[in-house]
User: What shape does this take?
Amino acid sequence: MRLRAGRLRAVRWQGRDRAIRVHDLFEGHPQPMWYYDPQTLAFLQVNDAAVRLYGYSQAEFLQMQVPDLRHPAERADLVERLRQRAPGASVVHCTRHRCKTGGWLDIQISAKEARYGGRTAILVLAVDISAQVAAQQALQRQEQQFRALHASLSEVLWLATPDGRALLYLSPAFEQVYGLAAEDFRRDPSLWLAHVHADDRSAAHRSGQQLFSSGSAEMQYRICRADGELRWISDRRTLVRDEQGEVAMIAGIAEDITARRVDQDTLRRNSQELADRYAELARFNRAAVDREMDMIALKAQINLLSQAQQLPPPYRLAFAATPGDQVAVP
Assistant: This one.
């Protein structure tokens, strides 16, 4: 009997010791924790971390129910789900809680069934993930802005693996410029060279070799679209290296410069035609001046012959540099 009584006392002390350790772990845990009644959904106990995060005092928490932390529009649905929770079920999910100041926190909830004061309760661990959610949302906004920017650009932006055999990214402008489905090009990047005009293909191939020898390359060439239309392309590409200096990817921009080339060709033709017209006018002016000088010389000779025969000169001279070289005015 004494042995049995001793064992019972030992079990009770072990139970008390375990309860003390659990209580200390709950109170001293760095993350917010609380117990709540699965029937009334009222808070039974909260730890100091919950008080610090949410701003409610212990007394205020004990006057609240779990749905009070949620948006009013969500509370009725939450009550229904919490009361239908299967016994013994553990739940992990993310939600938003309102703190005492009125601000909102993004919270990851881990809940499981536990014993509190000799009855069944739900133990909740709440982790504030507001910073992570804000960072993720900021990244998503940047990605949306990035996609919107690329969708609005007329240039084709692309990224490829270091060997150029696989595409990592291709902007939406590709289909408009090349007249090809982007998916076809992703499956076979060699379609690029196949659509370069035959007369420009060797130069385009050399541009690819220059890229790997010097780290960047730029050239202009013609492409034959799938519909047969001919377009001029300005192709700029560069090797992107990582912190160790290794090639991480190839980045390129392909721009349709057909209109610009047409304007340049038109301007060049107009400039040449204007130069030709000026040359023609200069030749005409020289011929006209020569004819005029010949006419003046002829009139001067007639005046001299008339004077030799004691006749009045038929032409009035405008000026006279020498007696034998005068300019006449009719």
About this structure: Residues 258-308 form the longest helix (51 residues). Residues 320-330 have pLDDT under 50 and may be disordered. The first strand starts at residue 33 and ends at 36.
